[in-house]
Every structure is written in structure tokens, then in C-alpha cells.
Amino acid sequence: MSEIGYSGSMTTIRQLIALTVLCIAVAAPALAQDELPSWWQDHVYFMSHEGGTWRAANRDVTEDPRSPDHFEMVWTRVNDGYGLRGRLYGLRDGENVGEYWTFAEFWHPGEARAILEQWSARGAYGIGELGSVGEHRYELAQTFWTRAGQASQSGHRTFEDGDTYNTDTFAIDGDGNWEQSGGLVWTRVTPSQ
To answer: How far apart (Å, rounded) are the C-alpha atoms in residues 92 and 85?
Structure first.
């Protein structure tokens, strides 16, 4: 090293590199937080505040005791607002009758977009992009794979308003056409309920 005019040890160089990396790592979250779009921050807050629990009536309930009369979702804000973790399960007479989906929704900093991944209790997997299409309105297009590897496309169009979360569900064909296949109205369940 002395031939380039430095007589310090390799340990000192390593310490300087480690300090530089540490400074970048500490500064990066503050910079990246400023880059989160306001619609994403609004969505994360809306879904997760006051406990993040949402309930919707099952319009297709049957007499089968495993058939839920309601669905419930719980969303938790994670990683300083970069993401949400969630789960969807069924209720019958207020009792949990099974978990259906686990979710990870997050802001992808490298691609500057929101991603939703979900896994079912039966081995299916889905991934897609969530985007803002107006004030408090969002669109999610996803590809799902069954445990056998068969793929399909579906989408959701949602409207977030106060303590209500409306979602319309769509099948998406090979040409990208959206055909409505259902929908639910979710109501916030506050911790005091």
C-alpha cells in the first residue's frame, strides 16, 4: 500500500469501508421513505389503523358448519410503512373455521411499484401489482398458480372510504378483458367491538 502513498493498515481501510456502508445503510431508509408515493402511504394507513381488522358477510353461506357466514381479514403495517402483512379467514357464528390466505403487500423500491403476494392454505400462490386509479381507488391484477402449476388471472377493483372497503372481483381472460365475478363490502372491526 505504501507505493500509493498510504502507510495505514488493511484493518483501517476495512474500518473506513464498513463505516461508509453503515452511513449509507442508516441514511437509505430516510431517503427511501420520502420516495413512497402518498397513495401508498394512505393505503397502508387505511388498511392497518385501528387494529387493521375487516369483516364481510359471505353471500354464499351454506348449512355446512365449515362454511363461513363471514370472512375476516387482519392487516398489519410493517417495515416503517413499506409493507403490510395480512391474513384472510372464515368465521361461523363468530368462531374461526379456517384460514384461507396469507398476504404480503409491499412497496418494491427497485421497481417503484406496489406488489401483493398471497399463499393459500391449499398450496396456491398469487402475485400481482396494485396501483392507484383515482382518489382512494385501486386496481390489482394478479396471476395465480394452483398447487398443480396451472395459471389463471384475476383482478380486484377497490374503493376505500372511511370504515368501509368495497372490492369487486374479476376474472381476466387471455386478451386482458376483465369480467366481474363477485364482490364484497368489508367493514372495519374496531378493537372495542
So the answer is: 23
Given a contact cutoff of 8 angstroms between Cβ atoms, the answer to whether 170 and 156 are in contact is yes
CA–CA dist 63, 77 (Å, integer): 36
Rounded to whole angstroms, how far apart are CA atoms 160 and 17?
A: 46
DSSP labels, 65-91: TTS-SEEEEEEEEEGGGTEEEEEEEEE
Distance separating alpha carbons of residues 145 and 153, to the nearest angstrom: 9
The pTM score is 0.79
Task: Give the H or E element holding residue 133.
Answer: strand 125-134
Residue 62 has a pLDDT of: 86
Q: Which of the 8 DSSP states describes residue 51?
A: G
CATH superfamily, region 37-189: Calycin beta-barrel core domain (2.40.128.20)
Q: What is the mean pLDDT of the chain?
A: 86
Which residue, among 191, 134, 133, has the nearest Cα to 163 in the 3D structure? 191
Domain spans of the chain, in order of start = 2-33, 37-189
